[in-house]
């Protein structure tokens, strides 16, 4: 635990003075103040994160964490568990949606085996397997505390390694059949929301499976002592409770993404959060290290019905509404293009003085 506490302790507030400098520059540009909306928000935030008014992100990566879930034994997904290793290989061979969108954005896909229930080999695969899938959270805790902390630390280490190679902008991606069930359970446990609000359709389940999935989430919460009644008080915002929730109903890829977010914050790098599963990691990270939320940019609003509540709990607002629910980091990679656009506005747009334009 001391190493994790040390990581969290190295996360500093963003540079508010540089936010102000970026805002001053935006207000000098040939436009009404604030007229570029969220592009201006992006420019201010990345300036504050990096400490540079006009940061350059020549190297950016979407880190796709993969892991299997024991809760798939309960029939919560429209797809079988063997799809996880199959899709990991698809990522590695460049054929998935996130690969296409990453190429378009000039970003690298970094694929990490955190807990796939198969033996995978590929020269581009980062193999950091903690165990072959989680235990069935509907029957017992998904992970041990040591496994949970190991997965978080692994995510931090991967970001550290990429920062050393010059990467300064990150996005979260994931693959793991069953992980929308785990994410819904995390949302319920950390906010007190009912499963009927938190549980979505995942990979496209029908009404019967959706109701069954809610029952399984409630069962997992009850089995693990996370469904607190009115007679029991719990500090849902505490870091200890967040770690306990991640251990009991989380996933190895989710824990790895918690580490990615904390690692990005520790290294003063922006991290773009993808959809529902990535936002579950963001919620846990924000409870472990509240300052980390300032380093996150929410990309898109997923079709998963609990995603709005998840983002609200973190204190984030999505930039895009694309009716997407694929995961992988697809929505987050799209926002890389918006970050690049905001950077070009800061660098290339004329000021009132340089263009000889009268102010309003």
Give a description of the structure:
Strands 3-2-1-4-5-6 form a 6-stranded parallel beta sheet, with helices on both faces. It has 360 residues and is of the alpha/beta class. It has one domain (57-337): Rossmann fold, CATH 3.40.50.10210. Helix 3 (38-50) crosses helix 14, helix 7 runs parallel beside helix 12 and helix 11 (252-266) crosses helix 12 (276-288). The protein contains 15 helices and 6 strands. The protein is globular, with a radius of gyration of 20 Å.
Secondary-structure topology with pairs:
Layout: H1 2-9, H2 16-28, H3 38-50, E1 60-67, H4 83-92, H5 97-105, E2 108-115, E3 126-127, H6 145-164, E4 169-175, H7 179-191, H8 195-198, H9 207-223, H10 239-249, H11 252-266, E5 271-273, H12 276-288, E6 296-298, H13 307-314, H14 330-348, H15 352-355
Helix pairs in contact: 2-3, 3-14, 5-14, 6-10, 6-11, 7-9, 7-10, 7-12, 10-12, 11-12, 12-13
List keywords for this structure.
single chain; 360 residues; alpha/beta; Rossmann fold; 6-stranded parallel sheet; 15 helices; 9% strand
Task: Give a brief rundown of this model.
The protein is of the alpha/beta class and 360 residues long.
Q: Major sheet, described briefly?
A: 6 strands, parallel
Structural class: alpha/beta
Query: What is the H level of CATH, i.e. the homologous superfamily?
Result: Nicotinate-nucleotide-dimethylbenzimidazole phosphoribosyltransferase (CobT), large domain
Low-confidence stretches: none
| Distance between the first and last residues' Cα | 56 Å
What is the radius of gyration? Answer: 20 Å
What portion of residues belong to β-strands?
Answer: 5-15%
Count of helical regions: 15
CATH class: Alpha Beta
The name of the CATH topology is Rossmann fold
Instruction: Give the helix proportion (percent range).
Output: 40-55%
Strand ordering within the main sheet: 3-2-1-4-5-6
Q: Give the topology string: H per helix, E per strand.
A: HHHEHHEEHEHHHHHEHEHHH
In CATH terms, what is the architecture?
A: 3-Layer(aba) Sandwich
**How does the overall form come out from the CA principal axes?**
globular
- Count of extended strands: 6
How many structurally independent domains? Answer: 1
Mean pLDDT: 96
